Amino acid sequence: MNRKLIALTVLSSILLGGCQAGDLPFVKNDKGEQEKNQSETGGHSDKKADKEPDDLQASSEMTIPSSSYNVTTDINGKKVIQNSDNLLILVNKEYALPGDYAPKDLVKPNVNFSFGDSDDEKSFLRQEAAKALEDMFQAAMGEGIELFAVSGYRSYQRQEVLFNAEIQQVGREKAEQAVALPGTSEHQTGLSMDISSKSEDLLLTQSFESVPEGIWLKENAYKYGYIMRYPKGKEDITGYEYEPWHYRYVGKETAKILHDKNYTLEEYFKTGKKI
Ligand SMILES: [Zn+2]
C-alpha cells in the first residue's frame, strides 16, 4: 500500500513537472501497477516528444492565400502597404498604411459606446467587422456581460493630431514610444475596436484582464472573428505593450486558428504557408 502511494506520488510529481522525457527512467524500474503508470506516463511524454512533428505538420497544413499577405512599396525606407482593403492586413511598426488610406465601407455598429451616441469617427468600423462586433456584444449580453465600444476607426489625420500633441507634451523620442506614428496605428484599418466595461469605468486599463468582461472577451472573441491583438508575453513580437482591451477583426476562420495556436497575427504570417 505504502509503495503504491509512493509510486503515485512519484507519478504525480512527474505529471506536474511537465513530463520531461528525462524523468522517465525514474519510473522505469517499478513493477505492477507502476508499470501501468509508466505506460500512461510514457504515453503522455511521447505526446510531448511528438510535439515538434505535430507542429510542423500543423504549420504545413496552415496555408494562407497570397492575397492575404501585405503587398508593399518602399517609400523613404518604410514599407507602405498597397492592398490596404485586405481583411488580414498586418499593420505594425514594420508595415504602414498610406497617408491617404481610409476604408470605403465604414459603418456605425449598433452597440453601446463609452462616449454615448455620437457620430465621431471613432464609432465606425468596416462593415464586416461592425456586424461581427454587434454579434459579439449581443452574445456577451446574453451571458450577462455588458461591453462598451471605446474607440474604433481612427483616420491618419486624427492619429497625426494625437501624435503631434504627444510630441508637444513629452518630446519626440518619448512620443514615438507611447503613440503610434501616423500610418502605423491599426485603428486606421477600421478593423480594430478598443473595448471596456462599467467595472473599469469605461477606461482602457490593464486590469480589464481580470474583470468578467475582459475574461469573457479573451475566451470568446475568436468565435466572432476577433482576436486580442497585443497579448501578454508577445510584446517582442507585436512591438506593443500588452493591451487586453484592443480587439482586431480577422474573420472567424483565422481567429480560431490564432486562438487555438496562441499565435499573434505576426506569427500567423511567419508560420503559415503562402499559396
Ligand atoms: Zn486600440
TrEMBL record:
Residues 28-51 have a biased composition (Basic and acidic residues). Residues 27-63 are annotated as: Disordered. Pfam families: VanY (PF02557). GO terms for biological process: proteolysis. Residues 124-252 form the D-alanyl-D-alanine carboxypeptidase-like core domain. Residues 1-21 form the signal peptide. GO terms for molecular function: peptidase activity. Keywords: Signal. This is Peptidase M15.
